[in-house]
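Bit of a strange request maybe. I'm writing a small parser for C-alpha cell strings and I need a real example to test against, not something I typed by hand. Could someone generate the C-alpha cells for this chain?
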Amino acid sequence: MSVLVLVLAVSAAFCLGIGFVLQQNAAQHAPLGDFLSPRLLLDLMRVPRWLFGIGFMVCGMVLGAIALSNGEISLVEPLLATNLLFALALSRHQTRQPLGRQGWSGLALLAGGVTAFIVAGQPQSGAAISDPLRRWLIIGLMVGGALLLTAYAKKSRLGSAPILLAVAAGLLYGVQDSLTRMSGQRFSAGGWSELFTGWQPYGVVVLGVAGLILVQSAFEMAPLRMSLPALTAAQPLAGIACGVGFMGDQLHTDAGALAWQVTGLAAIVAGIVLLGMHPAMPTTGPREGDRAGAEV
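Reply from user aminoacidic:
Good idea to test on real output. This should exercise your parser:
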C-alpha cells in the first residue's frame, strides 16, 4: 500500500468529515419547502457556515480524486469511510459528550474493519473490463437504486426519508468515485483533450450535484446521526462494487481472504452505525413549520 495514497485518503476523510458536520449545522435551519429542490442549494449559499463546509468537502473531494488516481478504488474507499471519525471528533467538541463504551467500540470496529479488509484483500490494479454492457449494468443498478430510494423518500418525507436519501447519495458518490478514477486515467493518457472528449468528467459533475442535493435534503430533515452513517456505509460499498466490477481492481479470492474481507466490511458498517448513533453526534431534528430562510 502506497504511503502517499494512505495520507491522501485519510486527509480527504478529515476534510469530508468536518465539512459534513458544518453543512448539517446550517442545513438543519433551511426551509423545509426546499426539500429535494435545487433551491435548497441557493438558500444555503447565503450561509457562511455552509460555505465553509462545502469548502472542506471540495478539498476532501480533490484529495480523494488524487488518491483515486494513484491507488485502487477498493483501497481508497474504506479509508474515505473514516470521515465519520473526524465528524464525531468535531461533534464531540461541540457537544462536550465523552466517547464512552459505544464510541470506543465504534472506533475499534471501524478501524479494525478497514485494516482487515485492506490486509486480507490486498487491492491491486488490473486491466479495466472492456465489456461496456457490464460497466453500464453496474452503473445502471447503482443510479437506478438511488432513483428508487429518492422516489420513496419523497413520499415518506419525515419518516425514513433522511436514511433513504443518504443511502441514495452514497450510491451516487460511489459511482462518482469510479468515474473520477476513470477521468484521471484519461488525463494521464492524453491530457486535457483526452479528458474532456470523454463522458466521464461530465458524469462526475452531474452525480456530484445530484448527490449534494440529496445529502443536504437529508441533513435538512433529521439529525446527522440518521443520515451520515448511511451515507458513509453506502459509498464505499458502491465504490468497491464499481472497482471490482468494471475498473479492474483485484482482491484476493481464496476462502480465508474472502472471509476476512466480508468480516472487515461487516465491522466497518457496524462501527459506522455505532458511531453515527453516538450521543455526541448532533441531535437537532426536524423543525415544526417551514422557516423562511436559512441561518447559521
